[in-house]
Amino acid sequence: xxxxxxxxxPVYVVFISLLLDLLAFTMILPLLPxxxxxxxxxxxxxxxxxxSDKVKYFQEIVGAPEKFNNVLxxxxxxxxxxxLQYLTSPLLGSISDVIGRRSVMIICLLGISFSYILWVxxxxxxxxxIARFIGGISKGNVSLSMAIITDVSSVENRGKGMALIGIxxxxxxxxxxxxxxxxxxxxxTRTGQWYIxxxxxxxxxxxxxxxxxxxxxxxxxxxxxxxxxxKSSLKNAEAMINVKNLFSFSAVDHGQKTNTxxxxxxxxxxxxxxxxxxxxxxxxxxLTHHVFEYSSMEQGWMFFSIGLTMAIIQGGYVRRISxxxxxxxxxxxxxxxxxSFICVGLATGPILLYLGLFLYASxxxxxxxxxxxxxSLYGDAHQKGTVMGIFRSLGALARALGPIIASIAxxxxxxRITYLIGSVCLLWPVLRLLRL
Length: 436
Hints:
Strand content: under 5%
Low-confidence stretches: none
């Protein structure tokens, strides 16, 4: 007798899980400049003062104002978080190719929850850094989510699954920063340790995500499609951490379904795009904080507008794109990002800034889902997790380098020149993709 209990489509399980995770993750985005200002004035360990003293010599050479030090420190934190993802994503992806996705996903979510517990109790900068460290090494759930989509979808409908991931990101950006900002504004009227309230809510969201996945998610990678050797899988992970091997995709079996030359070119395009993009994206909150004097709430509304634009484009357009139009859509998105950062860099008032942010949101909605869909077409079934893990690692490596380079540039030569240089450099990925 068949059970009447219906199995929830894994694609929708991934969507809900990612949405909960991203709501918690994005809450900190509008708060980071204010958080670093808080630790500047209230760090009992003296770490912030020690770091400021260490950069003072270079600060005097380049003429950087002291208020920009939090841009520099924020860049280091952002780069550290992504560098840890770069190290752990291939390892987690390869392990999941052998033992399945479910258990690895649960371990990741446990680590993320613990990082939020530390954030709740981060009454000094050292604990906050440790919280970000643990969050970084646990953030393999995103690459696992992409691998799950690949497990359960066909070539024809894979784009729809990837678009749902994009929609989860968009909704996270719509609601998460606004929630974080609202809690921060409310908490600041009641306590000096104002970050505890948004941190606690982020913790509750992460625990809800952990419980949901534990109870609802059923393994997406059947035994017959798993990698057979744990030893070889870990060897593949080691190869993906090695930068030379990572860019050569040496961990992927170059079988009939893998055009190695094209895959390497696509990986390089993705890396260069994200390296430049992520640096400019990361410094956006510091630009609005310092140049436009945005409060946390105003930044929350900024992210709300960006996320809403992304959700409308991805929900109404990207998920309906046919396979033969994926590349053209990615190229369109890459063209849009160039004028977006020019507008943001040159803006002295709201009109040019909002135009730039609209183009930025439109581009973001198109590029990553389409490139990841293109990447998912490569490799045999048992290697899909490895391919997606490599792309996630390339993205994490780009995001590890981008924020710190852009933050140093912002700190030393200012936001305008930084954004204009970045815009010119973004010509390279789109021209390369046109020739792929």
